[in-house]
Amino acid sequence: xxxxxxxxxxxxxxxxxxxxxxxxxxxxxxxxxxxxxxxxxxxxxxxxxxxxxxxxxxxxxxxxxxxxxxxxxxxxxxxxxxxxxxxxxxxxxxxxxxxxxxxxxxxxxxxxxxxxxxxxxxxxxxxxxxxxxxxxxxxxxxxxxxxxxxxxxxxxxxxxxxxxxxxxxxxxxxxxxxxxxxxxxxxxxxxxxxxxxxxxxxxxxxxxxxxxxxxxxxxxxxxxxxxxxxxxxxxxxxxxxxxxxxxxxxxxxxxxxxxxxxxxxxxxxxxxxxxxxxxxxxxxxxxxxxxxxxxxxxxxxx
Length: 302
Prior knowledge:
The chain has 302 residues and is of the alpha/beta class.
């Protein structure tokens, strides 16, 4: 049995002469929150539309829960829910009426509406017209519509796009709840790197249609070697002392300097060395690149 909710094998897709997705081999483990990262125009939405069979993929390139999507279209789609671009909401209907309407279309018991509104935190606004919802509430209603059929896999395309900080936090918390409490696998595309860093367990980085990195958040962070950042009263003198003692300074300016990190004991020795040479150390600590810096490093090589 495959442990993957989504697998693409060398997926390539073109609009006419333009290749939009190129040799994409993506692996989304069951139970993960997979952050699908890339700048606008990188191929994220096209990939999601292919996964939903809205765009037809070549045979034997897209597998949902181990089954090839073209030959298992209906059974695959039954296991998926999606929010792509804008939620399909009727503004003149209440939140609850929007869900009832979808239940009728899908042949689902209407009792699911109250349960789903509770999951997305919209019970209080059930009888309010959806046209009067804030952008964040509309996104949550869109996710509720995607959840009605109780899918195992959720595909969310830029769900925090255009939201205020409060709306972003609400969607972030909702995704974590869905994965941990409701056993959903979530593929979430975004160009908001800090958001993905806070929620995702796995990351795929795409640029110009190509997958440049795939792995866990920890594996992504491990790509960058940590350094020791030192702030002192005399940066120039501190740099000279370290270099004189055979220590490689990887970056230095008037505010701080960075040296290669070996271990915590080494950090203590550096501190002692500077203090013994009459340099006052204001701060010393381990520094890692944040996800944004790593993302820029990876995409700039492409």
